[in-house]
Amino acid sequence: MVDNNIDIQILGDNLSIDTCYQYVIDETCGGIVLFVGTVRNHNKGKDVTHLDFETYESMAIKELSKIADECVEKFQSKKLSIHHRKGHVGIKDIAVIIAVSSIHRKKAFLACEYVIDQLKERVPIWKKEFLTDGSYWVNARP
pTM here? Predict the structure, then answer.
């Protein structure tokens, strides 16, 4: 879903930091904040081989749109780009990118943190962690 100020995508291919950054650049903004979440090779003392993300895509996009709208209201965000992977995601690969532009940096930081916190709490995207000795669903919800 892309409109004038909000770009939300759930993709099965590699995510692009530059695509998100270019989307949020705005001549009226002095602050752009990017959060890039990558897959690490360990968790809780175990070796991780990869992650697999499943999603209820239409609902995830709808909820991410609400979160983005909340950022516009709460933090006066000018533009937001939220891209999340689905399917197999390998070690060091990007799982999520959040880019926010605002007139001032402080509100851009606050909005970016708000998006990732709300995404983890509310958005129907589920993460399965694959280990060298098995696999499990992380925080099975909503």
Answer: 0.94
